[in-house]
Predict the 3D structure of the following.
Amino acid sequence: MEQDPVEFTREHWSASDQPGADHFAAVGALMRAHQLIVAELDRLLKPHGLSRTAFLLMATLLISRDHTRPLGQLSRHLMVHPTTITLVIDQLYAKGLVNRTPHPTDRRTVLASLTSDGHELITKAAEDLAGGQFGLTGVSDSLAQQLTGVLGQVRDKVGDA
């Protein structure tokens, strides 16, 4: 059986007298998992014509009060540059999936909201992603909960609010 590439890297990093082998291996494991999960998410989203950012943006609107959020909040919540949010909103608006409206009391703020077509599409896409376990194919509910807990601890240590 072939050796796990993360363990191979840890062993050789350490044998080369490089510092922080355990942390290096942990980051390598996260990055490999990320690449595999992202590839599966992209595959599942492709039939819906959605990017991961568009899906996450629409999912955030779906779970927001009145399916509406200010663009700045979307940027902070999704940890995406405001320019990217504007670009994705423009693309979704052109497809009739979101609306842009001025904030009723703050002229500087633009609100994004799901249209009925957007609500229908995000619901279908979410069902397909859930069927594919959101890219965590073969991972049990229990392991997914453990992973969320461990990554929550890591996020806390690295400064995620």
